[in-house]
């Protein structure tokens, strides 16, 4: 009798452990565009085109800047940093986005999801820093053109790039570490085709107040601080141009492409942050579209904007294809 009771207790204990482990699902389930599953294959066509154009455009700029000594200037080196960051962002998002729309591959492991959200956040943080460096570059070029090359030397630019990467790693690395300590006991179905910190955090069954506070800290330290510093840089540029009153249009024309890149990067990102924190009643489709725009639009449009506005760069690219 006691042996049967012990066996029953052991069976119940193992069953309980099995149920508990089934709740701690080893996978997240990604989602494409809800309600449009039947046409996902057709939706994949514009996504594939965006990826191809973005990868080719950024790769061409990197190749031209590397092989042409006349482009070894601070402005084009910072543009190369931007291109590398955009390529990294494309590589980080392409497997899951195209996997869903082309192959209906929706499952992603916890570790892969945490790694993806880390790299997405990291690369966006680095891109924000690079845009800030590019604003500083334009300020130096207009404020002190005679000392421009001596101030922004190649070793100094390399140190700036290293600081951007280290700053991003230091700020973003706690995110997956904080998420990894949670228990996930819900359906774990995400509403995007890639992993986002805010959404993965909502799947947790634990108290996420620390993550919420740290998420706000990251937003203030990167998006808000960098955008304010970029704004101050352009205020100083305008003051310099107005005070000098010489070649104003030509000086400001060199900033147009950078201003476009700043607007393309920050506008959807700010809207998305506001919607996730305050727009609880907003349309889920709007959140999904803004998410795709914030990830895929900057890598797509940055090469186009800089090729259109920079005659020197455009001439070098045309020369490659003409040969």
Q: Quote the CATH topology.
A: Rhopdopsin 7-helix transmembrane proteins
Q: What's the quaternary structure here?
A: single chain
* Class computed from helices, strands and strand pairing: mainly alpha
Low-confidence segments, ≥5 residues, pLDDT <50?
A: 1-24
The top-level CATH class is: Mainly Alpha
- Biggest β-sheet description: 2 strands, antiparallel
Spell out the CATH superfamily.
Rhodopsin 7-helix transmembrane proteins
Quick one: how many beta strands? 2
Distance between the termini: 91 Å
- Strand arrangement in the largest pleated sheet: 1-2
Shape: globular
Q: What is Rg?
A: 24 Å
Tally of alpha and pi helices: 12
Portion of residues within helices: over 70%
- How would you spell out the order of helices and strands? HEHHEHHHHHHHHH
Main location: membrane
Transmembrane segments: 42-65, 77-102, 114-136, 157-179, 213-238, 259-279, 285-308
Pfam family, one: 7tm_4
Subcellular location: Cell membrane; Membrane
């Amino acid at each position: 009798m006691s042996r049967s009771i012990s066996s029953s207790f052991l069976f119940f204990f193992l069953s309980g452990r099995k149920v508990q482990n089934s709740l701690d699902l080893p996978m997240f389930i990604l989602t494409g565009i809800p309600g449009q599953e039947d046409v996902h294959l057709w939706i994949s066509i514009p996504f594939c085109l965006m990826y191809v154009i973005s990868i080719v455009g950024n790769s061409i700029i990197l190749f031209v800047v590397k092989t042409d000594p006349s482009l070894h200037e601070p402005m084009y080196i910072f543009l190369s940093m931007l291109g590398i960051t955009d390529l990294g962002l494309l590589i980080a998002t392409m497997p899951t986005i195209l996997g869903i729309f082309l192959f209906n591959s929706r499952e992603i492991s916890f570790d892969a999801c945490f790694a993806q959200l880390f790299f997405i956040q990291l690369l966006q943080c680095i891109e924000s820093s690079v845009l800030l460096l590019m604003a500083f570059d334009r300020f130096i070029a207009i404020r002190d053109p005679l000392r421009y090359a001596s101030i922004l030397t190649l070793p100094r630019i390399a140190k700036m790039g290293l600081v951007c990467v280290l700053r991003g790693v230091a700020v973003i690395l706690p995110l997956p570490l904080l998420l990894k300590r949670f228990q996930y006991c819900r359906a774990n179905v995400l509403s995007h085709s890639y992993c986002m910190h805010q959404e993965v955090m909502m799947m947790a069954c634990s108290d996420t107040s620390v993550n919420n506070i740290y998420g706000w800290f990251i937003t203030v330290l990167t998006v808000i601080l960098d955008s304010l510093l970029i704004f101050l840089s352009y205020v100083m540029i305008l003051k310099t141009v107005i005070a000098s009153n010489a070649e104003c249009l030509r000086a400001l024309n060199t900033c147009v492409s950078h201003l476009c890149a700043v607007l393309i990067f920050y506008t959807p990102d700010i809207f998305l942050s506001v919607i996730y924190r305050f727009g609880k009643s907003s349309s889920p489709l709007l959140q999904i579209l803004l998410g795709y725009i914030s990830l895929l639009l900057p890598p797509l449009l940055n090469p186009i904007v800089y090729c259109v506005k920079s005659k020197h760069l455009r001439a070098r690219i045309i020369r490659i294809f003409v040969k």
